[in-house]
Amino acid sequence: DGLPPLEQKDTYTVGFAQMESNNPWRIAETKSFHDTAESCGWNLIATDAAGSAAKQVADVDSMIAQGIDVLFLPPREEKPLIPAVMKARAAGIPTFLIDRSVDPAVAKPGEHFVSFLGSDFIDQGRRVAEWTLENFEGEQGIIVELEGTTGSSPANDRRKGFDDVMAQHDNMTIVASQTGDFARDMGRQVMETLLQAHPDVNIVYAHNDEMAIGAIQALELAGRKPGEDVLVVSIDGTRDALQAIIDGKMGVTVESSPFFGPLACEVMNKYAAGETIEPWVQVQDRIFTVDNAAENIDAAY
Amino acid sequence: MLDTDALDLRKYLAGNTQTTAVWLALILLILFGLLRYDNFGGAYNIASFLNYNAMFIVISLGMCFVIMTGGIDLSVGSVAAFTSVVAAYLSPYGLDVAAPGAILAGAAFGAVNALFIIAMRIPPFIATLATMLGAKGGALVISGAETIGVDWGSNFTKLGMEKAFGTIPWAILIVAIVAVLLWIVLEKTSLGRTVLAIGGGEDASILMGLKVNRAKAFVYILSGACAGMAGLFLASGFGAGQPLEGIGWELSAIASVVVGGTLLTGGLGSVPATIAGALLLGLVFNILNFENGRGTISLSAYWQMVIRGGFLFVVILFQTRVSSQDQKVS
Amino acid sequence: MQPLVSMQGIEKSFSGVPALRAADLELAPGEVHGLIGQNGAGKSTLIKILTGVYRRDAGTVRFDGQDSTVSSPREAQVAGIATIYQELNLVPLRSVTENVMMGYEPKRLGVLVDWNEAHRRTREILSRFGIDIDVRARLGSYSTAIQQLVAIARAVSLDARLVIMDEPTSSLDANEVKTLFGVVKSLKAAGVCVLYVSHFLDELFAVCDRVTTMRDGQTVGVRNIAETSKLELIADMLGRNVEDIQAAGMTEFGGGTKEPGEILLTANDISTGNRLRKFDLNVHRGEIVGLGGLLGSGRTEAARALFGVDPLTKGRVTFKGAGSEPENPAAAIAEGIGFLTEDRKSEGIIPDMSVRENLTLALLPKLTRNAQIDRKREQELVAHYIKSLGIKTSDMDQPIRELSGGNQQKVLLARWLATQPDLLILDEPTRGVDVGAKLEIQSIIRDYVDQGFGVVLISSEFEELVEGADRIVVLQDGCSVSELQNPGITENALVKAIAHHHDQEVSA
Amino acid sequence: MTMTPATGKKAGGTMPARGILFRNLRHHGGIVALIVLLVFNALFTPNFLHLQTLFVNISQVATIAIVAMGMTLVIATGGIDLSVGAVMALAGALAPLIFQSEFAMAYPVLGLTAAIALPLAVAAICGVFNGAMVSILRVQPIIATLILFISGRGIAQVLTNGNLQTFKNPAFSYLGTGKILGLPFQGWLALAIAVLLYWVVRRTTFGRYLLAVGGNEQAARLSGGPVRSVKIGAYMICAFLSGIAGLIVVAINSASDAARNGNLMELDAIAAAVVGGALLQGGRAPIFGAILGAIIIQLVKYTLLANGIQDEVALIAKALIIVLAVYVQQTRKE
Ligand SMILES: Nc1ncnc2c1ncn2[C@@H]1O[C@H](COP(=O)(O)OP(=O)(O)OP(=O)(O)O)[C@@H](O)[C@H]1O
Ligand SMILES: Nc1ncnc2c1ncn2[C@@H]1O[C@H](COP(=O)(O)OP(=O)(O)OP(=O)(O)O)[C@@H](O)[C@H]1O
Ligand SMILES: [Mg+2]
Ligand SMILES: [Mg+2]
């Protein structure tokens, strides 16, 4: 049996089960859905699971109980959100996964949910690594890696993408890899400490821009020159990061756009119209460097 | 001895106004939800609400026992996360292995707490705070910092995803049985009475010759086992062992227990009222989700936090008002 | 005959300070054995070593001819030693039944507590003490006296071979003491040995066979009660000659010498709800007014009302000529009232604070200069009171919890004397205080009144009231019912005044 | 007749030696832990014996220490304050709102003053709320402060609409990045607060009442102690200090993140206070103990990070160290 169909209507009751709101990226994403709601004819029910996968499932449950037509779900974790996908399907609600996916071994696009809309976190890490290899000017790269929240999938994937590339290059060593919890303050504190233990560091890879900015602050407080003697690279493409690139303090940030609202609207309408949807609607992430940072900063969040 | 039942009930209400408050609040909130939202009272919502809250109820029950001795257990959330990983690893062997495995793992953490508190005389707050960190770290270590998928082929996921007789989620049914057993232990056994006596005065209980250490060990191991059971539900109901879950569960369990009229200083407590407290706090989330669905106002995540805090404030005001009237009456 | 208990050469010190040095105790089966000594002599400590609460530093303990292995109160109970500790050790939040039965509940099916049976048994046990109360109610809702009796009832019901009572009568009235004696005698008749600690020597003569006296952590003598006198016991306790002591009377109050001065306080028809319903009182300067009555008659409630602890629901209080209705203790203190509470442990001492800090607690507002405490004055004052009241403490910075009960009481008395209140309300000021200290406290009170201040004295000891008070207001069920004037009051007259009205009430 | 008290022991007088010895023993556990940590680091952690290490640790420990001192006062009354992190977030969220307002742009000095004073005032009000809940409504402290723990951060996010506020304001950033005599400003600030609070606890009437209330509330009240005001005062000071910590965090980062500022601070602060010798049942307020506790917690964090220990293992190590530190103290006390 196939996916539940979606009839074409003027307005839809749409569920958006956000996982958490404790960082600018998530907030921008939620806002993007709210902003799209009116133009797309959505009656939007947005919930917030405050970082708990279990609560996110319960939130989806309460949306199903309220009779939503469509579900947009950024699953907090790969596996624990599978029940949410299954329940929505059982209730005849087409589900689109946003920005993260679920374990494909159990729940498959085109069968249990319509499609996954998002980037490839592993690829993001890989692209940062590749850019770094090209643009690093020294001989020996001594790398400090600031990881995201321990155990979270973007942290795991962004580490994997980056580390796998670096492992193939003898002149690159990751001397320390510690969590900064995706937060600026933690990123700064961890960097301050690691800088003491590894004063010879010359590359900092942060799993998101917030930690990268924190690391830049730590470097500056310690009298180092980010951008000159230490290359800082990261992922997201926030306004602060673009500014840092313009200021020459940061090398690159690979975009990971939170503005999913319009894309979600478009894909949903196509689905309602009966078109087949790709199992993975891949978002084309741009890469911001000193070449294009200035022209993109106004659109950044 | 010739008391009629009616008299007893009146006496009960007079002597237990704190627990009366929580029942009243619960009923009011349910009525509010029923009147305001369509589908709020629908079978789907009720079943999924109970299924999700089974975890919190069982943790609150364990916490209630700990608090009755005047202690506290901050480790429950992390322990549940840990045991969910254990359960996920054991899931291929089916429920009859995974369930005891998870509950024993939880009980083991409870035993560590008991050891810290009884043998090493570390204050419960600190001892269980340490266990909280340790269990969280342990969960991440044994899971390799990833969620661990369960075996969907075995009967493991039945527990969290299927319903007994097609209507009652298994998890809540089991919690109900646990609750009845614990109620009997509390009201009808000397162990339960000792638990209460310790909270009422530990020194006095020792001088009265009660088996204080045994009862204290019991409550911490019980609380650990309850957390283990919650971890089991977590893994079974969500299909994965989740090392990152359980953050803040201890606080909501404590809040449930207190809203249920149990004194944090110990010596008083009630099993049914604790359940009511857990349901009450869980219901707030459910209601907020339904409120969002009405579309009149969209409550952002942070507004929801403000409202939840405000609600707790109101419930507590209500409770103190009711119980201060109680004092005046007597 | 082989002794039931034989303790020899017991030593015990607390953080280096010796509490017991070479203490001995020998109890014969079936005897009632008194244990006396001044506050801090080590009686309670000796008992706690016997029952395994404390571990001894040296010495031997033999129970029933064997080396005792008791190392916890639980084991003591199992071995057949039931104890009523000096500090009431019950759980006020739990019901009376639980407090009596805890640990020995009647069971059904081996595990489930049979509550009906438990309540029934509890009622039965309590009825031996003439108490008829709702055993399901929280113990804490009853008066100290009832709680004390419940503790005794629990111990007696344990089927022990040795029952230890550490100052069981300190909060009981005459009738209840009589009941207790009846119980002690029946225990004795049943072959149970009773160790009886008390500061009331009369009681020893009424029930004991032998008496052991302790002084400064040592056993100084064992006497057969039939062959000794009060004076000899006191002499043992104090370590002095019988002749010296004979030269003085038994209480230190002495009659009021001066005429009472101007009126200090008037309370008209005041009430704070159920427990204090209608209370009238006049206190003049230079006068000790006693409050008499049975336990639970509302004396403490009256004191609390005057001190602003419980708000008045009715009536008026005039203090020093002005209308007075202190909102809280702080205001009452500022107006010049002091209140020594009856429950030293829960309402008096701050256990972890030093003697110095405890002593000056009520005085702080007056010791404050620019938000700071005037340390020098504080130390002078404390040193003065330690000296003048003879408080036994290693130094003024010793935590008060390490002092014996009587010395704690003196510190608390000093706390109030230091504020120099115009009116001092004393609720059972000599409860649990040894003979020597009691006399000192009494004489301090008299001195204080002679300086032109007023005192309200609540005491369950008729002797103390009759000899100490210039006037006695008798309370009953929260109402003041009659007044007796000294000189001329006898214990008999007081008992009659209390009982008389009671009879009327009953027959009416 | 006169009766002298039983002689044998000297009555009155002072015996300072005993007091000092006792205090030392109580702090022994913490100091031993500190020495062990220092020695370990000196031997194994690369570049530990550098001045910059000191700077980093001082600047990081200051916030924990400041909050832990406030927590110590609250714990001394027998209470606990879970809301410190939320109050940090609230104060931290307000400051940029104020100094980035038009008014502050026009009058920088006034604006800066307001940007510090107003958030601290709001923080203090939060403390009054907590204190009033505990002392007037008699709500148990964990629950009373749980209310702001939940909603305080929510309020902060409502105020900022959930956004991260970034700014450039060197004068304000001095709070977190300034240096006096080469050492971080916030370190000096923490020290100054410690000295002040030590004086308050040891010498003032408020301090005496604080310990009395924690030691035996009934007795304190019946001796005329202003129980309510003392409790409210303790919670107010704690919240005020949390406010300062919140401002420092914002100042260091030149950004205010209401969602993260002060996250989990309550646990660190409580652990620091207890490792420093505070008793949860009240009656004791070791201010410098709290600083010692904060330093230990900071050093543990530093040691594990600098030696590349994974986060999850670090959690376990932290747990063991807390247990050990408290256990050592516990045994020394007996
Ligand atoms: N837990 C303790 N810690 C320190 N010192 C103690 C402790 N218990 C008792 N002491 C000290 O031991 C001595 C003996 O005290 P104990 O309570 O045995 O006296 P007591 O004879 O029972 O006096 P009282 O008649 O006042 O009850 C006293 O000096 C007391 O200060
Ligand atoms: N906490 C309480 N709750 C309910 N009733 C109480 C409580 N405390 C005392 N009572 C009752 O109130 C009445 C008056 O008690 P109160 O303590 O004033 O008597 P009292 O004459 O001072 O006796 P005592 O000599 O024991 O102090 C008694 O009947 C007593 O049983
Ligand atoms: Mg004694
Ligand atoms: Mg009384």
From TrEMBL, chain B:
It comes from the Bacteria. Keywords: Cell membrane, Membrane, Transmembrane, Transmembrane helix. The chain crosses the membrane at residues 20-37, 49-67, 97-118, 125-145, 165-186, 217-240, 271-289, 301-318. It is found in: Cell membrane. It holds the Pfam family BPD_transp_2. CDD domains: TM_PBP1_transp_AraH_like. It is a multi-pass membrane protein. InterPro entries: ABC_transp_permease. Its main location: membrane. This is ABC transporter permease.
Automatic annotation (TrEMBL), chain C:
CDD domains: ABC_Carb_Monos_I, ABC_Carb_Monos_II. It holds the Pfam family ABC_tran. Keywords: ATP-binding, Nucleotide-binding, Repeat, Sugar transport, Transport. InterPro entries: AAA+_ATPase, ABC_carbohydrate_import_ATPase, ABC_transporter-like_ATP-bd, ABC_transporter-like_CS, P-loop_NTPase. Residues 5-241, 245-502 form the ABC transporter domain. GO terms for molecular function: ATP binding. PANTHER family: CARBOHYDRATE TRANSPORT ATP-BINDING PROTEIN MG119-RELATED, GALACTOFURANOSE TRANSPORTER ATP-BINDING PROTEIN YTFR. This is Sugar ABC transporter ATP-binding protein. It comes from Sedimentitalea todarodis.
From TrEMBL, chain D:
The keyword Transit peptide does not apply. It is found in: Cell membrane. Pfam families: BPD_transp_2. This is ABC transporter permease. Its main location: membrane. PANTHER family: ABC TRANSPORTER PERMEASE PROTEIN YPHD-RELATED-RELATED (PTHR32196), GALACTOFURANOSE TRANSPORTER PERMEASE PROTEIN YTFT (PTHR32196:SF19). Keywords: Cell membrane, Membrane, Transmembrane, Transmembrane helix. InterPro entries: ABC_transp_permease. It comes from Sedimentitalea todarodis. It is a multi-pass membrane protein. The chain crosses the membrane at residues 31-49, 55-75, 82-99, 105-129, 141-160, 180-201, 232-252, 287-306.
